[in-house]
Amino acid sequence: MGKIILTGDRPTGRLHIGHYVGSLKRRVELQNSGEFEKIFIMIADAQALTDNADNPEKVRQNVLEVALDYLACGIDPKKSTIFVQSQIPQLCELTCYYMNLVTVSRLQRNPTVKSEIQMRNFEASIPVGFLAYPVSQASDITAFKATTVPVGEDQEPMIEQTREIVRRFNMLYNTETLVEPDILLPDNKACLRLLGIDGKAKMSKSLGNCIYLSDEADVIKQKVMSMYTDPDHIKVSDPGKIEGNTVFIYLDAFCKDEHFAKYLPDYNNLDELKVHYQRGGLGDVKVKKFLNAVLQEEFEPIRNRRKEYQKDIAYVYQILKEGSEVAREVAQQTLHEVKDAMKINYFDDIELLNQQIDKYKEVK
Ligand code: TRP
Q: Is the pTM of this model over 0.85?
């Protein structure tokens, strides 16, 4: 059996360059590698609603934003099926059965869910749907028999939960219907969790420290020029620190040796630049201008492709609709096999019918 990818994002905002280095770029490479038989990319609107039940309009708006960001990055609807989670009711049905295989305390121990509960002040009143979203995520993954789930490290507990559900299901029902997925983490350390431009925490919409894929050139430049560096690097002649210096963290994530020849030919590579910065005599503005050039080169084509798709929004919705139809068929097939394995297929099971007839033959 070929390898199958499933991954996705919650549509709660436009995607930013942290998403890009952390996952989108890799997805496009995987898509174009030819190594995968099928690729499913899901806009997880139902999961977004587990903590946005009071704000469906936000989710509704961002389904399209995320779709535009995907297409802009090079996700190709001819090679990858892009679909919308809520349009696949089979996923809810699977979740309903999987919930019987998971305990409440197991869900409460999930470290990602735990920290999300804290962040949202849900301690006193957790929505059931929110606590159970790792189970729903197991449905997303298993419905497509995904072998490979490319996601950030914060999703590791979800994949582990999925694997547990798969093992328990297959063992209980003596079947091989469900497939245990592997997580595929980003390969570059600097990309695991890109810091925001304030250097304080992971890039995140709520902290207002993002550079978005849809940001215009001048907005990117202004954000780069305002980036947090080394607060003790006051005069150009001062030695500077690389650790915790956001500009260098971004360079680690984005810059290649070719960029030096093009934009900063006094240096051959990032190591040389770092050495000079640490020694003193290299100003922040020069490094920021270089980073800006690197980011502009990477994101200009993406922004332009986004604008092309923005001219034909009806077509973008059509892509999502057709993708959802394909996804529904695949999920339906798995659901069918799941119900067979659980023997809740009363009307397609001739054996059951004959058994029951036999059972009642003797009864006069
Ligand atoms: N939890 C993921 C996120 O917050 C989104 C998601 C939902 C997902 N279902 C998934 C990711 C299945 C991978 C596989 O970004």
A: yes
- The contacts of residue 164 (CB under 8 Å, 6+ apart) are 102, 106
Measure the N-to-C terminal CA separation of the chain; round to a whole number of Å: 52
Is there a contact between 84 and 39 (Cβ–Cβ < 8 Å)?
no
**Could you tell me if the CB of 22 is within 6 A of ligand 1?**
no
Identify the CA nearest to 87 among candidates 55, 109, 63.
Answer: 63
The predicted-structure confidence for 149-207, as pLDDT tens digits, reads as follows 999 888 999 999 999 999 999 999 999 999 999 999 887 766 667 899 999 888 888 88
Q: Is the CB of 139 under 6 A from ligand 1?
A: no
Q: Which of 15, 27, 47, 84 to mutate to test the pocket of ligand 1 (most atoms within 8 A of CB)?
A: 47
Q: Are 278 and 270 in contact (CB under 8 A)?
A: no
Contact 247, 274 (CB under 8 A): no
Q: Is the dihedral of CA 181, 187, 190, 195 positive or negative?
A: negative
Q: What is the pLDDT of residues 248-294, one digit of tens each?
A: 999 999 999 999 999 999 999 999 999 999 999 999 999 999 999 99
User: 12 in ligand 1 pocket by Cβ < 6 Å?
Assistant: no
CA of 44 to the centre of ligand 1 (A): 7
pLDDT digits (tens, 9 = 90+) for 303-316: 999 999 999 999 99
CA gap 234, 236 in Å, rounded? 7
pLDDT tens-digit series, residues 212-229: 999 999 999 999 999 999
Ligand 1 binding pocket includes 181 (Cβ within 6 Å): no
Burial of 159 (0-12, 13-18, 19+ CB in 10 A): buried
Helix/strand/coil for 207: helix
